[in-house]
Amino acid sequence: MIKQNSVVTMHYELKDSEGEVLDSSKGQDPLVYLHGAGNIIVGLEEQLLGKAVGDTVDAVVAPEKGYGMPVDALIQTVPKEAFGEEIDKVEVGMRFQAETEQGPVPVVVTAMDDATVTVDGNHPLAGKELHFHVSIAEIRDASAEEVEHGHVHGPGGHQH
Ligand code: ZN
After folding, report:
1. How far does residue 28's CA lie from ligand 1's centre (Å)?
2. Is a pLDDT exceeding 90 seen at residue 23?
3. Which among 8, 43, 68, 113 is most buried, taking Cβ atoms within 10 Å?
4. Neighbouring residues of 139: CB distance < 8 A, sequence distance ≥ 6
5. Ligand 1 centroid, distance to 147 Cα (angstroms)
């Protein structure tokens, strides 16, 4: 059964509350994570505790235990001059890394007018209720080194 420091291999599909598929491991390698290490969102981790190989889990995760609620402070309107010559390439929907005092933050351009560009640094899934369908393929105990590092080693995990 899944417990603290289990290494879990699972297939998953993630939908929003309208049933639109946001992410899926279908046709790809399964997801491998270290349970209890914050590798996956807390709301999903909680609902996988105690599950066994072969179990399927339908987990609904509120934004508070998912990617959080959108924060206004992460939405900024900046003058076009701030982009220099790069401004010619900027368009609504574009994603890039913005340099901030806290380091690079992924943002998306949400609006533009004659003088300014509005960028949003919230996680794309912030504010969304997440609907996971998970099937548990494999469970093993983590090695001492994996526990120490806080992530899985080997196939599907960290390659040092
Ligand atoms: Zn490691």
Report:
1. 23
2. yes
3. 8
4. 1, 2, 6, 7, 8, 9, 52, 53
5. 9
